């Protein structure tokens, strides 16, 4: 009875933040960080263990495809709100 769901309309959240796709270049859970290579090219994106844990994960695997929000923090870009 209701129309279509609204889940496909979430391309952008909080203004300019857009979900990006990339591949895990490397991640070291002991050090607590790693890097994602964006599918669109450009500089690798830093990812902290806290973002991984917020996604309900304990680690990321090299070569794993992920979606994430690029967040600017202190002049650097990091990945948040990960989805696998």
From TrEMBL:
It comes from the Bacteria. Its main location: cytoplasm. Pfam families: CSD (PF00313). GO terms for cellular component: cytosol. GO terms for molecular function: nucleic acid binding. Keywords: Cytoplasm. Residues 19-84 form the CSD domain. It is found in: Cytoplasm. Gene3D superfamilies: Nucleic acid-binding proteins. PANTHER family: COLD SHOCK DOMAIN CONTAINING PROTEINS (PTHR11544). This is Putative cold shock protein.
